[in-house]
Amino acid sequence: MTPPRLSKPPPHSVDEVPGPPGGPFVAVLRMRRDPLARFTELHQRYGPLVRLVRRPVSLFLVSDPDAIADILVGGSRAYGKGAVMHGPGSWTHLVQPLRMLLGDGLLTSTGESHLRQRRLMQPLFHKQRIAGYGEQFVALAAAATESWQDGQLMNVHAEMTELTLAIVARTLFDVDISDHVVDVVRAALDETMAGSAPQEASGLGLGHVDRFPLPAARRRRATTTALDETVYELIAERRAAGASGNDLLSLLLAVQDADTGERMDDTHIRDEAVTLLLAGHETTANALTWTFHLLGAAPDVASRLRAELDTVLGDRPPTVADLPRLVYANAVLRESMRLYPPVWAMVRHLLEDRVVAGYLLPAESTLVLGQWVMHRDERWWPEPERFDPGRWLDPATAAGRPRFAYFPFGGGTRQCIGTSFAITEGVLTLATIAREWSLTPAPDVRVRPEPSFTLRPRGGVPMIAHRRRDRRDSARAGGSQG
Ligand code: HEM
């Protein structure tokens, strides 16, 4: 006998989505004040789908792994990037705060144009190609710590930002951190980050009431123009020289569509290069900064990490070949990105009416997918606030979690193209620094996250650098045994 077919219950209406009482003004004010705490609280109180604002924007927080899988993977064609804003009358626009700087690069392009670009660029980020950059990651990390003094107080966020900028400058343009190109890049990126209200920067569409003061807007335009000129100069130089290098810019110049034979024009290469500059250093700087911050507050974890580094590396710097054995270092980085995901929320909007987490939401609804919230969900992360890399060491536990309980790199066709780059860079840099240095928190400093485009530490992370003596002792002991 065939079992009776269980028909799916009809979806609930949008009016039934739970959410906090009060009008949009109060809702936006509360979110703007502290989006991380507010989203966490709303998720805990109202569940996997929360109505954040009803009008003039229709904004929802999604914290259901299956719904996130539909948005990013299964039904991704039904969703666009960015937030939809509605103004008086029929005025509607899309908030894509980075578009002015990034143009039509991979991060900001949409639809067919994005898929085509992604196909062209994917081979540049193949695991094996990234492995070729390993030596540079290690050399640049070692160089960045050369000036550190034992006992020195430093801002780890500033140090990691300079290091990851040096890495991206070398791998993208094959230039040194001291090159004037890097100054121009630094100025443009700083101005863009500083000039944006956090709420607008996050792309949540909550910052439209802010207006950039005129001088700041002018500065932003000036630094972006200088950046454009520099990048176009580099492109022209490379073209003239026959672009045969291994840096990403040379590879972009050589990229050719397999079907049409078409190459990228200069504007397109500029947009992709600036996108990689920003996406490739801001996120990794934050990941490394939070990792050192967490290690500083967890001596047991730090000591287990050092033990692994000493065992695997002995007295030499790491290489890409060591990565499979740096299991704990990898777990430390993953766990750090769980607690402080460099991209703390992503924003999508519905292109059509669609059922999300059991509710029928109308087209143009804006959906916030919050890594910060999901990565602290007690259903999958017992004692969520605890920094415990051990969570990643048992494959059975990891396999029991839904795919989108953890998504620091997003997912689906828009998953971070730099995932392998970031993990290779992150683990090798962490290993290079932590085998020589131990960083402890500066006394009486409270470090707080600032949710902007990325999750930066507000005011930096002051820490004290100590040159490791125990390593020398253990290396010496190991040497005398051999
Ligand atoms: C820890 C480091 C990193 C994190 C946490 C991170 C995170 C992310 C996330 C969450 C997205 C998806 C955004 C969305 O779908 O709305 C993304 C996209 C992207 N990332 Fe990363 N990223 C990191 C490092 C890098 C690096 C090193 C590069 C390049 C060298 C890079 C380049 C990009 C690009 C180009 C995209 C757009 C991809 C597309 O839409 O097709 N990222 N990243």
UniProtKB/TrEMBL annotation:
It holds the Pfam family p450. The keyword Magnesium does not apply. Its cofactor is heme. The keyword Heme applies. Residues 1-21, 450-482 are annotated as: Disordered. GO terms for molecular function: heme binding; iron ion binding; monooxygenase activity; oxidoreductase activity, acting on paired donors, with incorporation or reduction of molecular oxygen. InterPro entries: Cyt_P450, Cyt_P450_CS, Cyt_P450_E_grp-IV, Cyt_P450_sf, Cytochrome_P450_monoxygenase. Heme binds at C416. Keywords: Heme, Iron, Metal-binding, Monooxygenase, Oxidoreductase. It comes from the Bacteria. Belongs to the cytochrome P450 family. This is Cytochrome P450. It comes from Parafrankia colletiae. The lineage of its organism: Bacteria, Bacillati, Actinomycetota, Actinomycetes, Frankiales.
